[in-house]
Structures
1.
Amino acid sequence: MSHRQKLDWAAGHISLLADAIEEYQVSYPFRAHPEYTPAPPFVDGTEVHVEFCFEIVNQIPSHLPLLIGDCLTNLRASLDHLVYRLAKEHSQTFTDKVRIQFPITSNPSSFIRQLRGTLSHLPAEVSAALTWLQPFAERWGGRPRHAHPLKLLNDLVNVDKHRAVLIIPAPSYARAIFSVNPPITEPYGTAIRNGPYRTGDIIGTVEFIARDPTTQFWLEPNEIDVAVVNPDTSFTSSALYSLREMHDHISRVVFPALEPFLNS
């Protein structure tokens, strides 16, 4: 079954992407540069304010967007191969000249137009299953429609047809780690903002009363990731997590809903 082969091929690319992201992560590509007000060395008893500015030390490798594009293309193709085969098996008027693709839309009216167009080659029970699978279906657990794995797949694969998918570094910082000699001071007013971040973003602040001129603070990352950005909605999500969710949704939801209608 070619749709299964396409999905398996996508899974292979996702594995390659995971390895590439891990290689990027271990290069420690980010840092949070502290900016002190006032600047050290500190006078005993001085109230000090620190802002941590995000900086990319190593840029994302240029082949990562290409790998993500390959994943997206094969995931989308697996859906198109399946709906093509359904039309081929169930319609006597369907020919290879008919350009049919798996419908993905958040607009019910647009979906109805597609059902009356090229999707009219599909039997009613297949159309009903496709309706149930759409991002506009109420069953989608309260999550925003642009976060639906099929909607995100469709948006990003359309971007990738014309330009590289935008990906950005996406570390998150969970806590402020401080070092002081001697260790007699405690920070207060700590505020940490989770990622993703862009270069120049202030990602955290901390205040303290100086008790030693050598007091230093820094942020320790608890997670480093690469995020993919939907340019239409500005929705940002983990590239690897999103691709795996798309794959699992197709494998566990879409295919089981439609494969029973195949003749063989």
2.
Amino acid sequence: MRQKTIKIARTVGLMLGMLVLVGWFFSLKLTPNVGITEGSPLPEGTTQPQLIIVNDDALMLAPNGALYRWGGKSTTTKTPGAIKPDLRFRKTAMHHGAILAVHEDDTIWGWGNNSFLIPNNPDIAPQEARRLFPDTGFIDISMSNRHALALKEDGTIWSWGKNENGQMGTGRNPDSNEPSPASSEIPLQIGSETDWTSIHASSTLSYGIKQDGRILRWGKRPVVGSGPGTSPRWTPIQTLIEQRQFALIQHLSQQTGKRSRQLLDLTKVRKR
């Protein structure tokens, strides 16, 4: 009887401890320019929030357009803290310490160590946020470790970075059957279409959604497990992935890192 009573007491104690922990967790909120405080609401605003996790590095875009970051090797904090607190953004992307973001004035900003995507400036430290290009009108951004995609309000897609597998989508050199250009430090428009609505960059692949719901891809699908790779596609082609599956892929890729990026490379999903 005594042992049973002890067991029940331990169980009740464990449950109470878990309730306290859960309550504490949900009471932790973010305040602008500071980080976590207890019992404060999220900063208000009209920006659609984003949460991006790459390995153990987390980045959040709050409703007021502020960015918060925690975890990872590039920061020492284990709780969300505001970064670049004087700046406000509409969209953001992150990959292994490098961050790209669409500023509230619809320009592209970047910081971190990735010379493929963030052109070197000898007068500015890599961790200092800066406007990367003179172009305006951007509304969305996506990046891998080697290339980036940006969507403009006019429905055009732009890309820059490395292009060894055609992931920029800018075509090929007809004489050498190589991608053209091999790389670019400035955004180049993909085709002339103005009906793109969504983008996603993944390792050596890129995806885009058209207004009519069609999903196109370009680049090269690498070998995943024992499966075969694919030949490079220099310009967008239609895929069999349905739009709801694309949304799931975007979510998985943002949440988990390398394993999700491998899932994203499984491009041929058959309709049932």
